[in-house]
Fold each of these.
Amino acid sequence: MKYKIKQGDKVDLNKWDPNEISEWSGDKKKAKEKLLELNKKLEQLQELLYAQHKHKILIILQAMDTGGKDGVVRAVFEGVNPSGVRVASFKVPTQDEIDHDYLWRIHKYTPGSGEIVIFNRSHYEDVLVVRVHQLVSKDVWEKRYEHINAFEKMLTDEGTLILKFFLHISNEEQKERLLERQTIPEKQWKFSNGDLNERKLWSEYQAAYEDALQKTSTDCSPWYVIPSNRNWYRNLMIATILVKALESLKMEYPKPIDGIEKIVIQ
Ligand code: AMP
Ligand code: MG
């Protein structure tokens, strides 16, 4: 998959076009039909995952503001049994969370056997917003890439499949989306002045993302940079990658109890 960052690759986000749609040859309408097909497959794979109770699936979503994390949760998992998927959204840490190490609040939301968990933001905020706003000093945050790699390696060794998606939008696209939030009544609730302040720090965030992506994309826990200016393409790519990853686990339903066929139900 061309959007996967291989371990050790240098990442220059200017070279990743957020508009490109080269992995799909049909039109937008066809893409939506394909997504419905993938939704169905995901539903079946989730049931199998739960039945087998062996693997744990962790999906990490990161993006600039308005990048579409909520849209992915809505569109990619449409039709999947809500009991089988959990979303953990990480906001500004509470005082109790700040008083602990930055992985403390994260670890308890990781998936158990048979579960799919989606992180809407994650421990990566601790090398992104925390770095950009200098919430801790450089000598503190620069050690975190190594901790994160070790943490994710441990989760993998213990049976977790980790997939990390950076939803890549352009600066102009973010402006369009913020304008929509300003002017469309149903979207105005999402508008926050805070987002405008963050927007001024666009290049600092891009640099922090480049560092995070290249230092923490590993063989066991890779990053995918998903062109995300077009929502339908973003959803289609993520659904495709997920279905492929789950299929590669070659899951099977557990064996029924001995003699199940001879049991007489009165
Ligand atoms: P939203 O996802 O739009 O609801 O916003 C959540 C906010 O929480 C964003 O502004 C994040 O930057 C912020 N946030 C998440 N994690 C952290 C963290 N570890 N430290 C500081 N701010 C954070
Ligand atoms: Mg926001």
Note: Residues 65, 195 surround magnesium ion (ligand 2) (CB under 6 Å).
Amino acid sequence: MSAKILVVEDEEKLARFVELELLHEGYEVRTAGNGRAALKEATETQYDLILLDIMLPELNGLEVLRRVMKERPTPVILLTARDAVMDKVSGLDAGAVDYITKPFAIEELLARIRVALKLHPAAAAADTPFSSKPASEEGILTWGPLTLDDPKHRVLYSGHEITLTNREFLMLKTLLENMDIVLSRDTLLERVCGYEYVGETNVIDVYIRYLRSKIDDVFSVKMIHTVRGVGYVIKSWEENETK
Ligand code: CA
């Protein structure tokens, strides 16, 4: 049995496009074009994941989210507009597991879906094929010899402690949590500097440089990869070409 996904989106072309891509990936898909239909569908059937647009006719996506969380909790990825900062914050507060900003690359959406299903598998079908992801037990992220302990705010490489600033730590954590997913500078900026940050995205390049000087250079490893014109990625240890 494959994972069941509900796509809630009132822009028909976008809804159809996402539906076809998801079907192509082997998911079971249903769509809803307004808030009321979405709420009915999402509370009557247990979905493994809901992709939820926020600006919807009849019932706002955030309202749908709140009611679904109360009646039939389901992992939700929000589809948000670029400047809808408050929507993202309220959405995450209301229990959404992730969000993606429109317009998005379908590959990024698919990657986020895989991560969401992997991290929130309770309802997901047992045999859904997942990509190999780092074991993330109780806030511990690992990459080969590197361990990031979130609760203790510590990073160790083969037992050697690496001292990072808060933002460097957050940057490393974000990249590790999204292993094998290329993150754009915009995405990293939001996660690392917060929604309210106003400034140049090249501050991200500066943090990447600091991280490389503390990890890659010291331990002669190529951990953080640049994807030209897109952003940065940490590939899973097995996939990483230089170990
Ligand atoms: Ca909409």
Note: The radius of gyration is 19 Å.
Amino acid sequence: MQHQPNLIDGQWINADDGTTLEVTDPATDQTIATVPSVGQAETRRAIDAAHRAFEPWAARPAAERGRLIARLAELMHRDADRLAGIMTAEQGKPLGEAKGEIAYAASFLEWAAGEAPRMYGESIPSSSSEKRILVLRQPVGVCAIITPWNFPAAMITRKIGPALAAGCTAVIKPAELTPLSALAIGELALEAGLPPGTVNILTGKARVIGEAFFDDQRVRKLSFTGSTPVGQQLMRQASGNLLRLSMELGGHAPFIVFDDADLDRAVAGAVACKFRNAGQTCICANRFYVQSGIYEKFMQRFNAAVANLKVGRGTQEGVHVGPLINDAAIDKVREHVQDARDKGASVPVGGEKVTIQGLADRFWKPTVVDGMTPEMLCANEETFGPVAPVARFEHDREAIDAANNSPYGLASYFYTSNATRLMRTAEALHYGIVGANDAVPSTAQAPFGGVKHSGFGREGGKYVMDEYTSLKYVSWGLV
Ligand code: NAP
């Protein structure tokens, strides 16, 4: 079994008191590695290192920073098979998906590398002929980065790419369940030539590391991806030092199929959107609204496609849906399906666990719930599992109102062949992301992020640089 230390100031370190955490494979329950369980003292040392590295890093020519970030992306592509293997072992997703995530993760670095030399400032005409007004765009400083387990690589590169491009340095705390992908990226960051202290990675008790972040005035920014309740808690803690914040939180994505949808594309999109990563994606479709004129045809095709999905260990050839991350995830899925049954829904496909010999008891059959109603749990909160609840609607407004009737506002989807309906629906949905005839909208060029309880801030596109920079106004008196 492997032991993987933490990265501080370019050195691989263990916890001062030698304590460790076990990392397990969710498909087998076997311990695959140990990592340090660091505390406040080690976190302070990581902040020291990031603080020391900050000014020299920010002072480097932006193009040079960009080249080093691009080099890290190249190394991720070079090692894609190895990194995908690590991810499948600690997170469970099928190997093909894990490899896709590595390419997706690298694309955020490539994008950020290109943005580094484009951090433009401005000059503004002054009202006085004796003055000039300049606006400089400057890095915010040391960034604390906290990420979830569902995308163990991409959630990190989406943040460190633009942070480093802007001239910031980072202290990363990955999810306890999936630290190995983060630490593997740390190794490649050193190989790429990123200076010691620019990227530091800590594993340990979240609350303890978090408190050390919030106690230290040298940390100027928190970029968090995770659940809404934890995000709210961190916002309260971050208020002490008035940290800049980016909050990528939970979702509850609606997926609307209008009567005039292209059926093949809508069914393929619904399956891809719902079942990738076993439904454990913040932008996964979580509830479906299908118009009555197409309902029967859609359900017939959708049920057949879902029944064909193969469940198994992510390393097995041909598997579409891997294990859920832990027992709590299985319990939540079971509760949502049972609740829907109790409230009158039928379950034409799945609806139960799958037992696979020799593997952990953590696989759930891809499930369709027919007859979702507004009072069901699945209509109101993230299931975060392979369950697709479907409701029928008559009029467009009904579906849009149901879609918007949620505190969340991350991603939403709909399928239609009518251009006017497409534009009106896109405008009417209260979401940060709208997939109009597109079930996989995430890409490095576009601004990813939510509204309402799904948080604020954008990752990707030119907009992401705003998250890691602040504007400085220089009033220049001519002498
Ligand atoms: P989570 O429980 O909120 O954890 C996210 C991260 O926060 C983990 O690293 C966790 O550490 C850490 N954390 C928890 N409590 C903390 C504290 N008191 N102080 C400092 N850090 C703390 O979320 P999750 O279960 O890992 O991820 C699933 C959630 O993330 C879902 O709601 C999903 O929708 C959301 N998500 C959103 C996006 C987006 O872009 N909007 C993307 C992916 C996922 P430990 O692991 O050590 O507990």
Note: Residues 6 and 13 are 5 Å apart (CA to CA).
